[in-house]
Amino acid sequence: MAVLTLNGFSKGEDGGGPSQCDGKFHSDYEPVVALSTGWYSGRSRCKKHVTMSANGRSAKAMVVDECDSTMGCDEDHDYQPPCPNNIVDASEAVWKYHLV
């Protein structure tokens, strides 16, 4: 089972550097996600949409980044530890406008 977490994809937010799929930052108003390393599958899911369900509602978001399950605790990863293998790191838009 996946664990949905909140992440900032804008410059200066907790997501760290630019998104790996397109080298850009993304607004909190865009429904985007970062997948843990295994699900990210070496960029094969970049720019593809995933559907999440919670609380009886569903949300569709575009994959733009990897939530690295093998590296962390450095500047590129905002000094956060590596992601567990079951993480879908979602933007505020996914939470605010679709799932709650």
The rounded distance between the terminal residues' Cα atoms is 19 Å
- What's the story with the biggest beta sheet? 5 strands, mixed
- CATH C-level class is Mainly Beta
**Residue share in helices?**
10-25%
Please report which band the strand proportion falls in: under 5%, 5-15%, 15-25%, 25-35%, 35-45% or over 45%. Answer: 25-35%
CATH homologous superfamily (4th level) name: RlpA-like domain
Shape: globular
Number of domains: 1
Number of helical segments?
2
Query: How does CATH name the architecture?
Result: Beta Barrel
**Major sheet strand order:** 1-5-2-4-3
What is the typical, i.e. mean, pLDDT? 84
User: Helices and strands, in N-to-C order?
Assistant: EEHEEEH
Structural class: alpha/beta
Oligomeric state, counting identical vs distinct chains: single chain
Q: What is the number of beta strands? A: 5
Rg (C-alpha, Å): 12 Å
Unreliable runs: none
Organism: Lithospermum erythrorhizon
InterPro entries: Kiwellin-like (IPR039271), RlpA-like_sf (IPR036908)
Family: Belongs to the kiwellin family.
Keywords: Secreted, Signal
Outline of the structure:
The protein is of the alpha/beta class and 100 residues long.
